[in-house]
Amino acid sequence: MARISSLIGTAIALAALPAASAKGLLERAMKPVCSAVSYVDPYHQIVDDAGYVLKNASVNDLTVSYAEGPDNGPPIVMFHAQLLDWFSYSRVMPELAKSFHVYAVDYPGHGQTVTPDDYPMNANQIGCDLADFIEQEIGQPVNVTGNSSGGLLALWLAANRPDLVQAAVLEDPPIFSSEAANINGTIANRAFNSSFKATYEKPDDFLIYWINDNSQYFINNIGPGTPLLLKTAVRAERKCNPDQPVEVGLLKNDDTDRMLLRGLDHQYDPRFGAAFYVGTWNEGFDHAEALAKVTCPTLLMHANFTYLADGTLNGAMSQEEADRAVSLLQDGTYMRVNATHVVNLDKPDLWLEAVKGFFGQ
């Protein structure tokens, strides 16, 4: 990594020179840099080969971006975790396409989905628009699954639009823990704080801003010195592959953190996370009431969690919250999984077995 960091630093320094004197030197310097940092995720081609097509749909005031697979079975609609985008499901999409008609959706605030500047970032607004997307683009009841905040949106749909949802898989959603009364006791609130600050500090580069503001996360999860190396790699990757979401080669063996950087760089709207921080995202969406309203079969997938020394919840749900959630469901099934928060990335085979089995395929 030291050699890579040195190469990147040299290229960045050359990029700062006057264009006439630096052009040739920069081109020569960037070749080994691009070779070192560039990475094309093989699942781009694998997903393409499975028959997926990227599409946009005009829904109300939105342009909804989504990946649609071939019509090989009942429809399944998938909502990724906060900060990510549809491609985070790439590890499970090829297999799902064999027996489902898959729609992997960038919900508002994420990916290529476009919202008005004054779009209300809350569950009720987003849920209504996603329901309209399903009615307009699919036109029949669906199986729905969502991870993290996407799981909350799947819950919203199952509770409020039972006519559209046949069955639901909630993949480690922050039920109860993300409500305004509890959010301060979660590690997720630190990321929400970054989004909140960004809404008024308005950084020119949100990805670099987020790495700076959450440097301890990368140090804890990857290693010392990681924030500086990542920022340098991101800047170099952008020069190597302009106009593309970053896919940092240094993290090619760490799908979750690489997808995180891609999502943060891929038009993430910090107003989405800020709404959790200030408590408005869940306004009018009481989790207990929603769970009690759900009539369809629902699988609650609960990933690993721990507590920090100060008692902060490091995970989506405590055991007590998960137990309470499943007890409120009319037709609920609980599944404890030995996996990190984004189960479909960490343990894709486990996720596929659970989801395909639950949806009867």
From TrEMBL:
Domain named AB hydrolase-1 is located at 85-351
> Which Gene3D superfamilies would you find in this protein's record?
alpha/beta hydrolase
**Signal peptide segment:** 1-22
UniProt KW Protease keyword: no
Keywords in alphabetical order? Acyltransferase, Hydrolase, Signal, Transferase
Recorded hits in SUPFAM superfamilies, A to Z, give: alpha/beta-Hydrolases
A GO molecular-function term, please? acyltransferase activity
Note the InterPro entries from the entry: AB_hydrolase_1, AB_hydrolase_fold, Carboxylesterase_BioH
Source organism superkingdom = Eukaryota
Would I find Membrane among this entry's keywords? Answer: no
Q: Which PANTHER family match?
A: HYDROLASE ALPHA/BETA FOLD FAMILY, PEROXISOMAL MEMBRANE PROTEIN LPX1
Give the protein's recorded name. Putative hydrolase or acyltransferase protein
The organism encoding this protein is Eutypa lata (strain UCR-EL1)
